[in-house]
Amino acid sequence: MVARRLQTWAQLRPLLRVQPFQLDPVARRLAGAHTVGDLRTLARRRTPRSVFDYVDGAAEGEVSIRRARRVLRDLELQPSVLRDVGQVDLSTTILGTPAALPYVLAPTGFTRMMHQAGEVAVARSAQRHGVPYTLSTMGTTSIEALAAAVPGGRNWFGFYVWKDRAAGEDLMTRAREAGYETLVLTVDVPVGGARLRDNRNGFTIPPALTARTILDGAMHPRWWADFLTTEPIRFATFDSWGGTIEELAAHLFDPTVELDDLAWVREFWDGPLVVKGIQTVADAERVVGAGADAIVLSNHGGRQLDRAPVPLRLLPDVVQAVGDRAEVMVDTGFSSGADIVAGIALGASAVMLGRAYLYGLMAGGERGVDRMHEILTADILRTLQLLGVRSIAELTPAHVRLP
């Protein structure tokens, strides 16, 4: 028999923890986010379906992104115990310059559509947390405006080769003159992927006012209020567009780009050159042989060719082939500090993140991006300590077993 008795108020009082009510709704919302997945849930609630699906979706049957996430989910981390991890160094070097954390914020288009603060908010957050931010050619903030707003940041420029080569030359010249540190040339978009979520949602840039979007707006009044009362969403590097993403890619991007065009890029860009969108060992060797300072193993977040290779699986072979001549970065599917640690352990100099920071931006603007950095910083620190590793530099392939 268990003896029972009521506890006295004096015994219960020390157990009561009354939390003060947070008046700021953004702070209150973000305080409950403990993972990037939590930020995704908040983002889904706060943005129209078509905007959220543009960020969240991928190409065709979305097989590529599911495979990438499955590999990250199923990999095995190999810890070593009885090691002093009282002090852990999360910093690293990316393209010869120190970074506080081992990741880069990737170029993403149309960022003011996710939140009116747009690219400037993301770049400011990146500067505060000591990581590079990449402004996209398809951005909604101009090259010069971002440089003026975040003059002390590690600003990179994400470049697509257009059919209008003179316009591309102008973009590279403007980025160089505005002090951008690195050019990221994306090479996996000769044509646009089939983004079926976007097609089914009737998604256009900027969002059109239709019966469907107006009805969705009733469910997301704050987003629509911002959309209708702030500076109109427009592209910063070319005239406005009123069609789908697929049609835009067909209109702008040059499908005839070849390896020899890297020499043309080098005529206008003498700083670090990163080539993003490499999906085979052979292409990694070709691009590094042509003068790239770094490559990004990427299938564009699963948004181009569905059933493309999983970048993380390619990483060890590519590092073995070209790692002594160029830095190798990786993206697609990374959404936690443990994911990032695994990528670095397998040989990447950095991981590129896209969706993760966009979820934060949609969830809470600039503070939402800050929250993503806080979550990932804590994740990385905890993962290193549990692995028995005292610095990013100590990670090796022995710490990871791929499925």
UniProtKB/TrEMBL annotation:
InterPro entries: Aldolase_TIM, Alpha-hydoxy_acid_DH_FMN, FMN-dep_DH, FMN_HAD, FMN_hydac_DH_AS. The keyword Cell membrane does not apply. Glyoxylate binds at Y54, Y160, R195, H300, R303. Belongs to the FMN-dependent alpha-hydroxy acid dehydrogenase family. It comes from the Bacteria. This is Alpha-hydroxy-acid oxidizing protein. Keywords: Flavoprotein, FMN, Oxidoreductase. SUPFAM superfamilies: FMN-linked oxidoreductases (SSF51395). Its cofactor is FMN. Residues 28-403 form the FMN hydroxy acid dehydrogenase domain. The active site is at H300 (proton acceptor). One of its GO terms (molecular function) is oxidoreductase activity, acting on CH-OH group of donors. FMN binds at P107, T108, G109, S136, T186, K276, S298, G354, R355. The keyword Oxidoreductase applies.
